[in-house]
């Protein structure tokens, strides 16, 4: 009898201990201390009532609103950091960074992780009440005017009311700076994305069901069969087709002039690509995705919480035939019919690594390490039970303190088209306020 109750007491003590340990792990996340993060006092004193729902605002979690939310876009970001024993300001270290860029166009190239990127940008646009050029007609394929190379204000919903304010565009469109500058607010930045052309081809071919188009569905190696004789395959589909979707598709969307896509003149290609490159503030490289997001954050002066993303892939295709190795001859043919894509990818990959080199002295790799860690940590949290305590992320050199909760996770995993609808709804509710002043101006 006595022995049994002793066991009972010991058991309860043991359970209590387990509970305590678990509780402490949940409540106080263990951050890597080698990254030396310090809490900065100014951020604790931010206003307590900003207007956003992106980072979670269920009534239970009001108190965990983030510091970054409470910054308005117009406020310069002065973060005091304590690092390596010395204290310096964020702006001293990142001299270009004064306020977040909130006017931008994303050239969404199919099958390049562009959907994941769109979610990141849409979340940001929603948070900053940006005004998107949007068409509900294009919801199905997330398309605005693609594949047209022109775009007008009238292609955007409610342009009569919103037309002077567009500062965000994320749906599939072909880059045309002249046309886009006309509809966007002055000073809009252009962001592109590219993927290594061979891997892009493998992915896009099956995603667009081109193995059906070329009647290669039952072929053991559709990609190889197509590349053995691309011209022959293309003729099978259409007698007169100069642009098949297998040729320089990325370059076309990124704005390479369509009438030059068939040129063999590598000097001309390079000149045009270089000129085009000047129109882009930054081009994300799919193969270096996390690094690219960190670079994007730096170029646009965003907070690290803005670039967090779900590691669940959107639109993932699983056709095992995608991975079949190709012969040298087949690869050569792919390079031949995609010469512009290859050169453009090399150009933007090279400029990407040049910018990495420039930033390396400013803690770029340290930031990438921390960002990877944070992405993993947040995704793990979001996968686990949704009703647990929020995950509090402390301030670091690259982010203000913020909190991840159920709402945040939902936003991270929301589909681009649902985000777009949500943002459009936010815009239309707000334009009721805008209508008045613009009517006043008109009636003067
Ligand atoms: C924020 O709170 C202050 C005082 O608490 C108030 O004066 C202000 O109107 C509030 N702003 C918004 C946007 O709710
Ligand atoms: C875009 O607008 C132009 C001019 O109004 C029109 O001709 C064109 O068909 C529109 N494109 C789309 C995709 O709606
Ligand atoms: C880009 O837009 C401008 C202005 O609308 C137009 O003149 C030009 O033809 C367009 N470029 C292409 C390649 O369609
Ligand atoms: C093929 O298309 C081009 C441009 O799209 C056109 O100029 C040419 O006449 C067409 N050829 C035939 C045989 O239809
Ligand atoms: C991108 O550029 C880097 C640096 O020049 C190079 O090492 C790498 O192989 C390139 N990546 C691809 C996929 O071509």
UniProtKB/TrEMBL annotation:
Keywords carried by this UniProt record: Glycoprotein, Golgi apparatus, Membrane, Signal-anchor, Transferase, Transmembrane, Transmembrane helix
An individual GO BP term: glycolipid biosynthetic process
Signal sequence extent: none
Organism domain of life: Eukaryota
Protein localization: Golgi apparatus membrane
MF annotations from Gene Ontology: galactosylceramide sulfotransferase activity; sulfotransferase activity
Membrane topology, from the record: Single-pass type II membrane protein
Main location: Golgi
Keyword Chloroplast among record annotations: no
GO cellular component terms, A-Z: Golgi membrane
Keyword Glycoprotein: yes
Annotated family: Belongs to the galactose-3-O-sulfotransferase family.
Descriptive protein name: Galactose-3-O-sulfotransferase 2-like
Taxonomic placement: Eukaryota, Metazoa, Chordata, Cephalochordata, Leptocardii
